[in-house]
Amino acid sequence: MAPESMINTEYSPQVDIxxxxxxxxxxxxxxxxxxxxxxxxxxxxIEFEEPKF
Length: 53
Prior knowledge:
InterPro entries: Kinase-like_dom_sf, Plant_MAPKKK, Prot_kinase_dom. By secondary structure, the chain is an all-alpha fold.
């Protein structure tokens, strides 16, 4: 889920493309770009950390 949809900010088609890219990455590799057990921690990682490929 894109951070914009979780923090109630403006939403655009680019958000859907971003989410699709994350989903495709996880389907191909079997691991998410940002991993944690707590949704708030994942949101923080998405906002402040680069993905680890």
